[in-house]
Structure formats: structure tokens, C-alpha cells
Specification:
- About 35% of the residues lie in helices and about 20% in strands.
- It is of the alpha/beta class.
- The strands form five sheets. An eight-stranded parallel sheet has the order 12-11-10-9-8-5-4-13. A six-stranded antiparallel sheet has the order 14-15-16-21-18-19, with helices on one face. Strands 1-2-3 form a three-stranded antiparallel sheet.
- Bound molecules: alpha-D-galactopyranose.
- Alpha-D-galactopyranose binds near residues 116, 162, 163, 164 and 262.
């Protein structure tokens, strides 16, 4: 939950009602669900009562930096971390960009090429950050990525150091944001990391609430710095789901926010993350997405069924689809999963409604996602071992509030399918049945 300093907020509200220009300069980013406005740049989100807020906001909007019209559907692209980690370099990023084009992934929607941690070098005497030797010319790299019809993303931390121990943005937020804009960066992942021990725990040793306020303020600060560049930059919050970011991330300009700790390429971790997404659906909407972390499709020892289920569930969750595999060496069957247009269409559905876990029976989960035009996606996942005819799973359409046989498309076979109430489904270990129904009854 957000916390506010009430007395200070009232004071500021009164002042700002008469000084809309001042409000504009502070970078208003959001109206809270209860009608109050959060103003990030003051240090941490202050809130103003809506009577003051509405007047002040209306006056401020005319001169305010336009808010980012980005991520109207969940961002799609590739990120270097899950496969390359600290081995990412200029060549690897160019290769990934080339392969996004050659594989047809760009045309399927994967447009962001995101450099994760370990690109950072040292700051010079003026505080200007330089990339390290792995990235000799970041601007040239960004130009190259853009020349392919793609966009480019980068990574930093609000702390002094990134998770991998490289230079973070603490005290250099404006300077770094300007640098990103100069390079032509389109996406920033901002990862909490050393901000926890070096700022939160140091400045507020035994006060969790104060620590969380410091964290929110740090995210607000970078939001303001990004907005001040005037460049539309997707803002991705990475703080592992602490303190329910889905409740406050939009008010600090977040377009997406991690909901959990890190993903790894194994089924148990993927399934644990999925289970933590149930109930978060109400926080997702165009421009604001829950982020269950980047894709592991094609990584580690995931079985094909597991890759299919992972990808299907991310689509049901309206999750960002950031491939994290070695694109130039991708197997055809992995490419087929990542480029399945029907699954991507579910993920990118313009209604922007995240799916819900409708019900579970033992280790079988049934997810539903409403789609534009009254359509519906259903995913039935067997998280356990085999459920064949000897030990069947019977789908209940009644529990899904559907009436009578439902005709749709089995997305993974590409064939028409009719689902009946009580129908027995045979789902192999960790496999999924993903169905799109255009006219559910
Ligand atoms: C954290 C993040 C990961 C990755 C690494 C990089 O663990 O959650 O996604 O960015 O840092 O160091």
C-alpha cells in the first residue's frame, strides 16, 4: 500500500491549487484509484485530496511533459539476461537483433532488444557514465538495432551498484536518463539491488515502512528523469514484488513491474511464479502490466510441453513476452512456439484484461481470459504427472459459466475443437490445452 504524509500533503495541496505551474514542474504522473494524485518527484508519492487535485491537475496538464503512450499491449522482445547473463556484448546484441528479423519474430511482434546487467563501465569526472569495453559504442549499437525496425532497452539500478555489481544510477538519475535518451534508448529496466542495503537499510534501519517509502521515491525519481527527456521510454520496475508494486507502480510511471523473484528454466519455478499471479488480474490494463519475469522458453532442460505451457500461461496472464534464449541457435520447435501467432494474439489482445485462474482440481488449473469482441481464451494446465484415461480430468464448463458445447480453436494443434461440459481431457505431464472461443455461450 502507498503511504502518505497527510499534513504535508494538505499543505502542498493548498499551495498547488493556486500554483498549477509548480505542480506541472513536479511531474504529476497519476491519479490514484481514490481520486488523489501522486506526485513522484517530491521524494516519494504525496497525495492530494481530489478536490484540490482535480483542479490542480487540470491546470497542470496543459504544460506537463506528455505521459508515455507506450506498452499499450504487453511489451514484446528479447532480453540478454536469461541466457547470456554477464556474457552479453555488442556482438551478441547485434546477433540477437539480426535473428529477431531473420526468424520472423520481429514481424510477430518482438521489437525490444533489451540489454540487461553488465554493460556499465565507469563514470568520468563529470559523472557521465560510459559503457564498458564489451560495448564500445552504445549509440552506434542503438542505431544498428533501430535500423532493423527494432527498439532497444537498457538496464540500471536506483542503488549505487547493480545486482551484478556494476555502476548504478544513485545520485545520477537525471544524467543517466539524458544519456539513455541521447543514445536512443526505448526501454529501461530499473532493478532495486544495492538500493536495499545501501539506502533502505542504512537510512531506515528498523523501519520497514520508511524503507518502502524510500524505494517508491527512488522509482518515482527515475520516472521523472525519464519523462523530462521527452522521449517515450518504457519503464520496467524490477523489485521482485516487494510491497505489492501492482498497487503503486502505475503512480510512479511504471509500465510493468516484476511480481516475483527471478525465474529459472525449470518447471517448478515457472509454476510457482504462475501460482503467485492469481488475483493480480485487476491491476493490469493497457500501459500497466504485471511482469512474472522474462521467458525461459528454449532454455535449460525444459521439455517441449513445459515450453508450451510456460508460453501459453504468459499469454493468459497478459505478461510481457521477452524471449530470453540464444536466438541464433534456436531450434525450429522453439521458434514455432515463440512465433505462434494465435498465442501472441491472446497475449496482445487489445482489451488488455489479464486472465484469472477460474478453478483448480488437484494439480490441474483452468485459466480464463476475456478477449476483445467477446471472445474467450481457456487454458487447462496439468502441473502434475500424467492424467490419461485411467485417471482422467473432467473439464467443468459450468464452473466457467459457459452453457452447452463450446466451439473454438485448439491453438497448439491449430484444429477446431468442441468442448463439452464434463469432457474428459488427457493432458500429459506439464502440458496445456489452449483454446480460443470466438463466440462463447
Ligand atoms: C536481478 C534481476 C534479473 C537480472 C539480474 C541482473 O536478479 O531480477 O532479472 O536483471 O538482476 O543482475
Amino acid at each position: 500500500m502507498m503511504r502518505f504524509r497527510k499534513s504535508a500533503s494538505l499543505l502542498c495541496a493548498a499551495a498547488l491549487a493556486f500554483a498549477p505551474i509548480a505542480l506541472a514542474q513536479t511531474g504529476v504522473t497519476a491519479i490514484l484509484p481514490d481520486g488523489r494524485i501522486a506526485i513522484p518527484s517530491i521524494g516519494y508519492p504525496f497525495a492530494f485530496h481530489k478536490n484540490y487535485a482535480a483542479r490542480a491537475l487540470a491546470a497542470a496538464q496543459a504544460s506537463q511533459v506528455p505521459s508515455r503512450m507506450v506498452a499499450q499491449t504487453p511489451p514484446m522482445g528479447w532480453n540478454s539476461w536469461n541466457y547470456f547473463a554477464e556474457k552479453v556484448d555488442d556482438k551478441g546484441v547485434r546477433n540477437a537483433a539480426d535473428e529477431l528479423v531473420a526468424s520472423g519474430m520481429r514481424d510477430a511482434g518482438y521489437v525490444y532488444v533489451n540489454i540487461d546487467d553488465t554493460w556499465e563501465g565507469q563514470r568520468d569526472a563529470s559523472g557521465l557514465l560510459h559503457a564498458n569495453a564489451k560495448f564500445p559504442d552504445m549509440k552506434a549499437l542503438a542505431d544498428y538495432v533501430h535500423s532493423k525496425g527494432l527498439k532497444i532497452g537498457i538496464y540500471s539500478s536506483p542503488g549505487p551498484r547493480t545486482c551484478a555489481g556494476y555502476e548504478g544510477s544513485l545520485g545520477h538519475e537525471e544524467q543517466d536518463a539524458q544519456l539513455y535518451a541521447q543514445w536512443g534508448i526505448d526501454y529501461l529496466k530499473y532493478d532495486l539491488c544495492s538500493f536495499i542495503p545501501d539506502v533502505m537499510e542504512k537510512q531506515a534501519p528498523n523501519d520497514k515502512a520508511a524503507q518502502m517509502r524510500l524505494m517508491v521515491a527512488a522509482y518515482a525519481k527515475m520516472d521523472h528523469a525519464l519523462k523530462a527527456t521527452g522521449r517515450p521510454i518504457v519503464y520496467s520496475l524490477c523489485q521482485y514484488g516487494w510491497d505489492a508494486p501492482w498497487e503503486w507502480a502505475p503512480s510512479v510511471g511504471g509500465n510493468l513491474w516484476r511480481t516475483t523473484g527471478d525465474i529459472t528454466p525449470d518447471w517448478d519455478r515457472i509454476y510457482a511464479i504462475v501460482s503467485q499471479q492469481a488475483g493480480l488480474e485487476k491491476y493490469a490494463s493497457p500501459g500497466h502490466w504485471n511482469d512474472p519475469d522474462m521467458l525461459e522458453v528454449g532454455n535449460g532442460k525444459l521439455a517441449l510441453a513445459e515450453n508450451r505451457s510456460h508460453f501459453s500461461l504468459w499469454a493468459m496472464l497478459a505478461a510481457p513476452l521477452l524471449a530470453g534464449n540464444d536466438l541464433p541457435n534456436m531450434k525450429p520447435e522453439i521458434k514455432a512456439i515463440l512465433t505462434n501467432r494465435d498465442v501472441i494474439a491472446i497475449d496482445q489482445d487489445r482489451l488488455g484484461k489479464q486472465g484469472t485462474r477460474a478453478y483448480s482440481e488437484g494439480e490441474v488449473d483452468v485459466w480464463m481470459r476475456p478477449l476483445a469482441g467477446g471472445a474467450l481464451a481457456i487454458a487447462v494446465v496439468n502441473a502434475g504427472d500424467n492424467r490419461y484415461a485411467t485417471h482422467p480430468f473432467d473439464l467443468s464448463l459450468t464452473k466457467l459459466d459457459l452453457h452447452g458445447p463450446q466451439t473454438g480453436k485448439d491453438i497448439w494443434t491449430g484444429k477446431p475443437i468442441t468442448l463439452n461440459d464434463g469432457q474428459t481431457l488427457e493432458l500429459a505431464r506439464h502440458d496445456v490445452l489452449l483454446v480460443r472461443i470466438d463466440a462463447p455461450k
